[in-house]
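Re-run with default settings, no changes from the original entry. Doing this only to confirm the output is reproducible before filing.
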Amino acid sequence: MEQALELAIGIRIRKLRMARSMTLDDLADASGVSRAMISRIERGEASPTASLLARVCAALDLSLSAFFADEGEASPLSRRQDQQVWRDPETGYLRRSVSPPGTTSDVDIVDVEFPSGARVSFPPHAAASGMTQHIWLFDGEMEMTTGDGTVHRLLPGDCLFMPVAEGHVFHNPGPALAHYCVVLDRRRH
């Protein structure tokens, strides 16, 4: 199933790139990711890391959640066994898209399992200007660094609100897996 998702990621990047009339070179220049790597991802020969995929999404004027949004038939119900799951090959971070597909909601809910010691940086991007997110920690601990450099230490039950466009760093400094929820509001505030 993960291999099928990796192929789908490559196909989706290519489809979005072509819909924007972007060449591989255009996307490479805009994202800071090499042309060769983008080509390998599009062909399903390489698996993008979360950080790399975030840079490509920013160049395509998309949030990571919008990229993973199911293009399938709309449904008010999202069953766990049908929810899209993606694992970052670099950190092992596991991302589950919880929100029902194809609804008119501007809110995306993502369930994340973040390994001990893992760190992922998401670059600032103008396409997310006005979007906000809540990070709600269930288990473990997290350090969140916001765009202005402020570091917030989260413990179970804590919830951090922050803008998406500024960029941020997720880090699990603890000895155990961190489990949290991201509630992303895609409206432009």
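The chain has five helices and ten strands. Strands lie at 85-87, 94-97, 107-114, 119-122, 132-139, 142-146, 151-154, 159-163, 168-171, 178-185.
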